[in-house]
């Protein structure tokens, strides 16, 4: 199936909201405190896309929104990578990370950072595979969930050449 990564538009909000929320339910919801789970909804993802589409990339697989990635603050930090469950293992996460890395390099940054829940083994494995190294690990307050979560902070040097 063909894979295309492109800039988001506000019109992607509903489909990206569905994809992001499905990914969150499968991968993140089970590893966060129960009292925090209700704070994230499909609308949380949709409004994110409507508010800052210029910081978001959409991955389409066979014309369907299969995932999204973002640099929420427009800097060198990848804030979000979400791949809908039916599209995992198809290279979507890799494509989103690589395209975001290109955007970050074009902004003039020499490195890229990403934070991930330390218990999210699948995501950690992907980022390590893509050349990210662990910088630190510890509790970090998540403003969206309103609680501290054990988080791994990773970085990749963009000047060393990619695989």
Automatic annotation (TrEMBL):
Gene3D superfamilies: 3.40.630.30. Residues 3-160 form the N-acetyltransferase domain. One of its GO terms (molecular function) is acyltransferase activity, transferring groups other than amino-acyl groups. Signal peptide: none annotated. The keyword Aminoacyl-tRNA synthetase does not apply. PANTHER family: AMINOALKYLPHOSPHONATE N-ACETYLTRANSFERASE-RELATED-RELATED. This is GNAT family N-acetyltransferase.
